[in-house]
Amino acid sequence: MPGSTTSARRDCAAARRRPTLPHLRGDELDDIALEAADDALMSVLAHLDDFRGASRFTTWVYKFALLEAAVKLRKRAWQGREVPLEPETWSLFSSEGLEPGAEVEQSELLAAVKSGIAEALTPHQRRVLVALALNGVPIDVLASRLGTTRGALYKTLHDARRKLRAHLAGRGFDVDTWLEEER
């Protein structure tokens, strides 16, 4: 059967995500997988001229299928859920068991990040940064809810991070050094 390999791969990609979607009933997963496969086919056809031959054609096509399946399943997982655009709680970001000096330093940094988000960012940048970076909202879901594109959100997130880093640098925090120490 010509489509059996593609169908098996599609089902496998969707089935791997089944545990994250316990609320799906019966054929819903199959419906989502078929919709993703249809959308992947349309994307492949639209990008045929972009195929450079750097990999096998089936590998190149499979990436479209995986992306479409992931996007559809993330959107389905967030369907009917509220998209948090404000920090749910800042206490989640503190680490326990730090030395007193490190704990004070971390508290100061968190306070500076919190003030930077409130003062240095536009309301749109603040909503995007908080939703994506702090509350873990998938970018596809946020793009859909805000009526924009992934690219526009990536640009907004990039600009927000740049402004936040500048804000922190202006307050005497060397974010790069601090991040290196955390690793």
Present the secondary structure layout:
Layout: H1 4-16, H2 28-46, H3 57-78, H4 100-120, H5 123-134, H6 139-146, H7 150-170, H8 175-182
What is the CA-atom radius of gyration, in angstroms?
A: 21 Å
Q: Tell me, rounded to a whole number, the average pLDDT.
A: 77
Name the helicity range.
55-70%
Beta-strand segment tally = 0
Q: What's the main sheet like?
A: none
Judging from the principal axes of the Cα atoms, what is the shape?
elongated
- Quickly give the structural class: mainly alpha
Succession of helices and strands: HHHHHHHH
Distance between the termini: 50 Å
Number of helices: 8
Residue windows where pLDDT falls under 50 for at least 5 positions: 1-10
- Strand content is under 5%
The gist of it:
The protein has 183 residues and is mostly helical.
Describe the structure.
- With 183 residues, this protein is mostly helical.
- The chain has eight helices and no strands.
- Helix 2 (28-46) crosses helix 3.
From the structure above, extract its key features.
single chain, 183 residues, mainly alpha
